[in-house]
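User: Round two. Same drill as before: sequence, then structure, for each protein.

Assistant: Same drill it is. First protein:
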Amino acid sequence: MTLPFLYKSQIYTIPTPKSSKILMNALAKLKPHVVHGSLTLSTLDFRLPEICQALNLPLIATFHPPFDSKLRNFKSSTQFLTYQLYAPFLAHYDKVIVFSRLQQELLMKLGVHKDKLAIIPNGVDTVKYSPGVSCLKSQIKAKRLFVYVGRIATEKNVEALLKAWKQLDMGEQSKLLIVGDGPLKPSLEDFYGREHNIYWLGFVADEQKRIDILRAADVFILPSLVEGLSLSLLEAMACGVACIATDAGADGEVLEDGAGVVLDTQGVTTQLKTLLPLFRDHNEITQLLGQKARQRVLDKYSLTSNISQVEKLYQEVLERKNISIMSHL
């Protein structure tokens, strides 16, 4: 079922005035055991607890907005407002799924009780996303392949990577692939092109093609100013790619203790100008980091583990609800 809306984007949704009633009637008819909502900056997020309480339905939320707990730039300050807005209302949900310890700590500082929060990270299909053979490097005549996958938008800080690459002159045998689309792509593409061995692939809808790109890559780079828990980063790690990412959101937590290289969100270009030649010239470093990245995903971020944890949480919430009902009889 699709609820009617006045406006919808990747950032927020404005539902129609009738949406609440339509949703309530649909839930009353469906009678689910559990309602699980993904909170995406919609006024319905604040009405949903009231609706489920009226229908006596257990309610779980997934809350995954990007953040930077250190508030080091304007983008992170803007995202922090989202957390401040939602924190008082999360108490009305039976459980709230967050993706990392850092996100849990941020919400607790804003007054959300620890018992309301369940840490369940994003998960990757580690069979599908795995090391394998790819012909891409030979097709573009690359000895060393560096890859970015994501939106081409301000918060992703892609230009910091592009500046470092252009200033270094990495040589003809090193290529940088930019995979993704977004509002900054047209302007950046004009200044950072093939003459610098930078290839713009745009948005790649075919999943197998994206996997082939990651399997060909030597290094995956994510220079974001704010993040949640990047699924693109986890997919690259699962494919055995050496990863460099900022400590925005939970990405630094994913790469901590040697599973990758963690950058500060301040001065990303300067840091990359040191690291990129090192990764270009030392294959043994990228191989070792790729192995550690793959193992980290197998240990903590597999899709199988994610599903098991969500199922366990459903059971826990249902049992609590049944106990609550019995106590009132």
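Second protein:
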Amino acid sequence: EEEGAAAPSVSGVYFICPLTGVVVRKDQKEKQLREAIQAYFSVNPVAASIMEIHTFNKDREKVRLCVETMAKYLDNICLHPEEEKYRKIKLQNKVFQERISCLEGTHKFFQAVGFETKTLPVPGQGKNSWRNTTEEFYVLKEEMLSRLEELKDCREQLLSSEPLRAQLHRQPTLFRPSPAAARFELPHDFFSLTAEELRREQRLRTEAVEKAAMLRTRAMREKEEQREMRKYNYTLLRVRFPDGYILQGTFYAQESVSVLYNFVREALRDDWLPFELLGPGGLKLTDENLAFNECGLVPSALLSLAWDAAVTAQLEEQRSPLRPELLAGAQSLS
């Protein structure tokens, strides 16, 4: 194992808001998304309300049922624009209450596509059938009847949209050659468990290892290793180039090896240059469909890059294959 002091790896896991481009720490991403969507209402209230529905209601089955029911309301209006009954939605209707009203963003959507709230008289029921009462309705504004194509577009957006996701920030960093390349210090963001849970897990595992070592079969050990790998949400990977420079990035533990190959290509002056990545121990990462946690590359790992033999001599004679802006910002590992 390489000698050297522990490297200051990263301060945490960060995400990029897809609406604003703002970079925030993991525990702030939900707040940032909410603020960004809220601000987007002034730009496109229909799109913003759809984002709310798909992003902040976590039960995907409830969301599916909700948007299908909402789409049905719009379908009926577009198919029968002359029939007034389809332009009214009773807010206390059982289906509306159970499928739609309880989900975030739905009321904003109806308002954005042209519905307004009205109190209307309704016939009495049973013993009170002779007496009219009033109830709250959403009623489509008359002007929207001449804009049915817009209503159809809103329906399609509602059905086809996906949750808005903050994008994991790779935090690409280039380090100068260092004997500390294999040393990592990871923040708690990289683990599914809390710090206290991790300490307890480590203590219990240490106590149990010696007792169980002689009894476990290979299959049992592999199953335990897989369970261990699932504890990690993220992984910090470093790729050491033949000239000693080290490229670092943050990834989801479940992402595939192909993502790392693409990450490295984006750091090259010429992204067509053929290369291979070697894991710890020199094992070639040939199956790019494998996830990092399936390869044991979690929660951190140092890999090596080997150029294809056809370009090795050519590269030795030329300038660094890395992009100039990366080289200019290269840092030192201490």
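The chain is about 40% helix and 15% strand.

User: Perfect.
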